[in-house]
Amino acid sequence: MNPRSLGLIVIGNEILNGKVEETNSRIVCKAAPPLGLKLMKISAIPDDVNVIAREVHEYMNCFDVVITSGGIGPTHDDVTFEGIAQAVGEKTYTHPELLTVIETFFGFTSSETTQNDPRLRLAQVPQSCELVYGIDCFTGRQSFYPVVKVRNIYALPGVPNLFHTGFAMIKEHLRDTRVKFHTHSIYVTRKETEIAGFLSTLANKYSRDVSIGSYPAFHNSYYQVMVTLDSQNEKVLNDAHGEALAHFGADVIEYEPNPVRRAAERVYHLITQPTDLGKRVMEAIQTIEEALNQYTLDQIVIGFNGGKDCTALLHLVYAAIQKRSGVTNLDDKDQILNNRDQNNTVSLPRLMYIRSRSVFPELERFIRKTLQL
C-alpha cells in the first residue's frame, strides 16, 4: 500500500533572513515514516498573504496532508490564516469557540476591549476550519488550545516548543495504521567511494521494495558511511540487509546513534553480556542502584571534570535513573527532563563541576547547556 503524501510549508521572514534557526522540519521528517506518511516536499516562504495562498493551494492539491509552521500570532506579520483562507476561496471570521479559548487563555473578554486588540487576531480563521484537540504531551490531559485544520491543512505555530506540542496533538489524526515502515542502518568503516558500486547493484536488485541511501560521516571517529535501508516489506528488507552485512563483513561496526535517548536500554543490555566489559559495567550499575536505593537524588552529587571516567559515570547514572523512571522509549524530547517539574517528577542528581587549571572549551559549553535545561 502506498503511504499518504505529506508536504510541509515553513512560513516566516525570520527563517529566510537567517535571524531564527528553523528546527520544526526535523521533527516532521523524523515522525513521518512511523505515522505511515511519506514527506514529499518542504518549502520556506515569507510572511506574505499571496505567497502563502499560492503555496498552500499547490500543496493541498498535490499532497494528502499539509502542515504549515509559523505565521500564527497577534502581530501584523502573522498572516497564515489569511493566506490559507485565500487558498481555499474563503474569508476569515471570528470563530466563537476559539475566541472563548483565547479569552480564557489571556484572561480577558472581547466585550471589554476594542476591535483592534491584537489578541483577537488569533481567533480570525478560515470559515470552514475545524478545531482539533488532542492529548497534551506534557499534562496527559486533553489540550486546552486547539490546532486549526482547514480541509487537509493543519496550521501550527512556528515557535519550536509550541510546534512540538501542536504536532504531538495531531499525530493520531495523521497516523495511517495500514502503512508501516521498517528500517535498518549499517555503519561501515570504509569510504563511500569504495562501497558505491555495491550499493548501486543492491539498490537495482531491490528497487521495487527497498529504498537504499548512503551518508558519509566526515567527522565521526567510529564509522565513515551510514547505509540506510527502508521498506514496507519487512521480509524483503531483511534479505537486502543480510546481503549488505555479508558483503561488508568486518567493515561493519556496532554503533548507537542515540546513546542518551536509549541509555537504559543499551546499558542494561550490555550488563547481560558474558564479556569483561559487561561484568565491569554490571558492578558499576549495582553500586549506582545501591546508592539510589539509600539516598534521594537531591542527596547525590556527581563530581565532574570532563574526564573519561566521570563522563562514563554520568552516563551510567543517567541510564539507571532512566530505567527507574520507566521511560525507556523516549519521543522527540527527553521526557525525563520535560517532566521534571510535574507531580510525577523524575528528578536528576546534582552535578558538581570541578574546574581545573586547563579548561576545555567544549566542556565549558556542555556545562552551560546543562545549566539551561
From TrEMBL:
Domain of life: Eukaryota
All copies of domain MoaB/Mog, residue ranges: 7-177
Entry's family note: In the N-terminal section; belongs to the MoaB/Mog family.
Name of this chain's protein: Flavin adenine dinucleotide synthetase 1
Protein species of origin: Fasciolopsis buskii
